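Help needed: design a sequence for this.
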């Protein structure tokens, strides 16, 4: 068994057919089938149950797939570490973030680039679930997400907590008078548009549970995972929303008003995260240090 055979095996698993796997690997089907037979003969077990052209992993095959993925990832990390030692602080740093967390990242990139101008960035955007999946697939090095974090296997650097704020269309200003803050009891008088993750729990549940704790029943007219879409709806008078304060930092508030929420412990927590068992490049470690040393 060698690393190339493990790569072939994992590709067959992921493609579900030898034909498609051979196409992805840019090789002919017979040599790939031969490699699979050799692997099964070496282990003395069937790795797949064959249903026509479709392949389904056996129990031993599932164990090998998990271990093979780990070994291939470790090999990739080793190659990256060796290359990085030779080239110093150069290359690409891939970072994923919730859209509502980009304000945490923009200032850090500016500071980081002053010290390491040869590092370039590749940014990916998505909700917390999507960012953690990108990390597990090793498509990004670091992620910035809103908590809670359901997945295990991550290390994290907590970022400063921030309050939630209430945002409503400016045309509704007469409904709040001159006040610069608002209570939850007053908030439920407005139709609400709330952030809701596609997978997992988060801000939606935090807000709804706090309302329930106070015996309040909101009128929720829209749920959406994208804060920009929600705020666009607010600006157009569809409803009001509750978002972390930093979400508004890069927006023009011409058509919206924001108010502090009084009498509630609603706080948004976020964190810089990375895979616990993955080799981190020098540039990734330096970015973590930038977050540690500089105020957000």
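Sure. Designed sequence:
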């Amino acid at each position: 068994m060698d690393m190339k055979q493990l790569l072939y095996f994992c590709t067959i698993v992921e493609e579900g057919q030898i034909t498609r796997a051979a196409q992805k690997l840019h090789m002919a089907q017979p040599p790939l089938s031969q490699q699979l037979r050799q692997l099964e003969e070496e282990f003395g077990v069937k790795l797949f149950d064959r249903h026509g052209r479709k392949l389904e992993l056996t129990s031993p095959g599932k164990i090998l797939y998990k271990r093979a993925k780990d070994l291939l990832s470790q090999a990739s990390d080793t190659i990256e570490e060796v290359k990085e030692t030779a080239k110093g602080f150069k290359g690409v740093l891939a970072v994923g973030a919730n859209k509502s967390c980009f304000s945490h990242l923009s200032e850090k990139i500016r500071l980081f680039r002053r010290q390491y101008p040869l590092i370039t960035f590749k940014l990916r955007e998505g909700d917390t679930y999507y960012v953690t999946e990108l990390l597990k697939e090793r498509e990004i090095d670091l992620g910035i997400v809103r908590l809670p974090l359901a997945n295990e296997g991550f290390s994290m650097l907590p970022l400063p907590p921030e309050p939630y704020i209430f945002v409503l269309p400016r045309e509704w200003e007469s409904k709040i008078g001159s006040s610069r803050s608002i209570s939850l009891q007053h908030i439920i008088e407005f139709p609400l548009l709330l952030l809701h993750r596609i997978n997992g729990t988060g801000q939606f549940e935090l807000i709804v549970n706090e309302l329930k704790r106070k015996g309040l029943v909101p009128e929720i007219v829209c749920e959406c995972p994208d804060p920009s879409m929600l705020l666009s709806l607010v600006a157009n008078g569809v409803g009001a929303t509750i978002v972390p304060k930093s979400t508004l930092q890069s927006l023009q508030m011409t058509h919206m008003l924001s108010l502090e929420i009084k009498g509630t412990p609603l706080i948004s927590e976020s964190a810089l995260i990375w895979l616990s068992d993955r080799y981190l490049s020098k540039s990734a470690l330096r970015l973590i240090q930038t977050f540690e040393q500089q105020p957000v």
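The chain has a mean pLDDT of 88.
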